[in-house]
Design a protein that fits this description.
Length: 565
């Protein structure tokens, strides 16, 4: 994707020289503030390793333009003269703004403006290209132009938006299916290739709305948003009577291929985008979809603080596994307002992090052990993301300590001379030669924001699933008054004080809440494992739907809310 003029490294040294010291001006403040500042500076140094190529190879101190992050793991379907997409540089753009490094941001924007093209014979994965490239460009354009963070002055003539639009146009042929569900793969130059696979995932076709919607709002061309929306509506129409979706499906027939699903791989960002689309675009339609989907997740996947997978048709548990991708869920729950549930799940994820030093890709909940093959940690961001959200919501210093431990582990296990390397096996801490682009886009960004949220002052942002911020603008909200007070937020009166509560705690739990005469399902409800309510341990007794308190097992062997236990 690059008409490369030079192959020089863009090691973002200025990142340190221009801004590290700018922020380090120490005032005499508390040891606590000094600790946060020290950690922030440590994360700032982690963002040093960036190149104008697709992926940094930290062990060999080189790079690759193989487009692997966009799906082509084996250099297949790439032209001889392919020069990459500068993916790592695109992914680092919004992180530079979060760090306040406007000089390097501007330099990167202008370099991309001159060198990036999408007129290449390369097969890419639509979802990956959307969240990383389109999302990176759209977010950077908004940051470059949106006050109060306007960072690029005279030289910027909307070049990133022009590039984003060019890419968006190249996405459109993928949506040309009888169902409106997009192909997972397409060739940027020639569109969907003959005999292309018709299989895609729920997240693959259900998490495009933020980037493509933003592109439509910015360009005035409705095609991107309407293609993404049509796909999302079709996907939602394929839910089971339990409001569950599967993991993979066929875009031509609109039939499910894999009926088992959870909140992790292949589905995760679908849930995230329903709710974030409601925040960004204000539409109640997204809220309604999210509400039903969230309740179904809590009802069929949740087991105490854990989430297993289940068959969408029956709701019966299928796989009892914790996967590192699931760790984004507590962060989403913070946005929803389900802080207590977020906190309890986050603690379990962090327990597994501490057990191994980092979070392994897959952990078997039924055996409390590692998955035999998926023992890797590719520097994923999800736990850092949830830690950041929980700290924002609670200001509990415990989350700062969690962040500190995470930064220290990442530095001690994965830092090498050429960057940060993925861990192949968490039991041996053997490394592999990958620094995935999401390390800069997400992992470092969320850790930084945990210690210094200056960027968030003055503007509301939502972060895409790849961690690229999009400002929440009232002009993007449909049918909403200037000062929008979401209908799903309210105040509960408790004594003299008003306590802010989310729709989830109000509308969903307790189960007795009525909505237009209709009983609403409780989100916290976890049924007893036996329908006769008999038990031998507390764990068999689930969560009470009215109080959201765990039930326990009485000495007579019955589940209930026994106050004396
Ligand atoms: C990122 O590319 C995105 O967060 C995506 O939604 C799934 N996870 C990876 C990083 O783990």
């Amino acid at each position: 994707m690059l008409a490369r003029k030079s192959q020089t490294w863009v090691l973002l040294l200025l990142l340190i020289s221009a801004s590290l010291f700018h922020f380090s001006t120490s005032q005499s403040d508390s040891p606590w503030a000094a600790k946060k500042r020290r950690m922030r500076d440590k994360v700032r140094k982690m963002l040093l390793y960036c190149v104008q190529h697709d992926e940094l190879k930290p062990l060999t101190k080189t790079f690759t333009d193989s487009l692997s992050e966009l799906g082509n793991l084996k250099l297949e379907h790439l032209p001889q003269d392919y020069n990459g997409s500068a993916l790592t540089l695109i992914e680092s753009l919004s992180s530079l703004v979060v760090l306040g490094n406007n000089t390097e941001f501007e330099r990167a924007v202008l370099w991309l403006s001159e060198n990036l093209t999408f007129d290449v014979d390369a097969r890419v994965n639509l979802f990956e290209c959307n969240i990383r490239v389109l999302g990176g460009l759209v977010s950077a354009h908004l940051l470059a132009t949106d006050s109060p963070n306007r960072v690029v002055q005279g030289a910027y003539k909307n070049q990133l938006l022009t590039l984003a639009e060019e890419l968006g146009q190249r996405f459109l042929p993928a949506f040309n299916t009888p169902t409106g569900l997009p192909y997972a793969w397409l060739n940027l130059k020639y569109g969907v290739m003959e005999n292309e696979t018709t299989e895609t995932s729920t997240s693959g076709c259900g998490s495009l709305i933020l980037e493509m919607g933003a592109l439509s709002r910015l360009t005035g061309d409705p095609r991107y948003e309407s293609a993404a929306l049509r796909a999302l509506r079709k996907l939602w129409s394929m839910r089971s009577s339990l409001n569950l979706l599967g993991t993979t499906l066929d875009v031509l027939t609109g039939e499910w291929i894999e009926y088992s699903s959870g909140i992790g791989a292949g589905v995760d960002s679908f849930y995230e985008y329903l709710f974030k689309a409601h925040i960004l675009f204000g539409s109640e339609e997204f809220w309604r979809m999210f509400h039903s989907a969230y309740v179904a997740v809590q009802k069929y996947f949740r087991h105490g603080p854990w989430y297993h997978e289940a068959d969408m048709r029956t709701g019966k548990a299928t796989y009892w596994q914790l996967t590192s991708l699931q760790a984004f869920w507590p962060g989403l729950q913070v946005l929803v307002g389900d802080i207590a549930a977020a906190n309890s799940s986050h603690r379990e994820f962090f327990y597994v992090w501490e057990k191994y030093g980092v979070l392994p890709e897959r952990y078997l909940l039924d055996h409390l052990m590692l998955h035999p093959t998926e023992k890797y940690y590719p520097l994923r961001p999800e736990l850092a993301e949830s830690t950041f959200y929980l700290y924002q919501a609670t200001k509990d210093p415990w989350y700062i300590k969690v962040g500190e431990k995470m930064v220290n582990s990442i530095n001690s296990y994965t830092k090498v001379e050429g960057g940060f390397a993925s861990i192949r096996d968490v039991t041996t801490m053997q490394l592999e030669d990958h620094q995935h682009s999401f390390f800069l886009a997400e992992t470092c960004k969320y850790l930084y924001l945990l210690f210094d949220d200056t960027f968030l002052l003055g503007r509301n942002y939502i972060f895409t699933t790849e961690g690229h911020p999009l400002p929440v603008l009232s002009s993007w909200h449909e049918r909403l008054p200037e000062t929008y007070i979401p209908t799903n937020w309210t105040f509960i009166k408790t004594g003299k004080q008003g306590r802010r509560a989310s729709s989830m705690s109000l509308q969903v739990c307790p189960a007795t809440m009525l909505n237009g005469g209709q009983r609403i399902e409780s989100a916290c409800h976890v049924p007893d494992s036996r329908s006769d309510h008999r038990c031998s341990t507390n764990e068999e007794c689930g969560i009470d739907s009215t109080t959201c308190r765990p039930r326990s097992c009485s000495t007579a062997g019955y589940c209930g809310l026994w106050l004396f236990i």
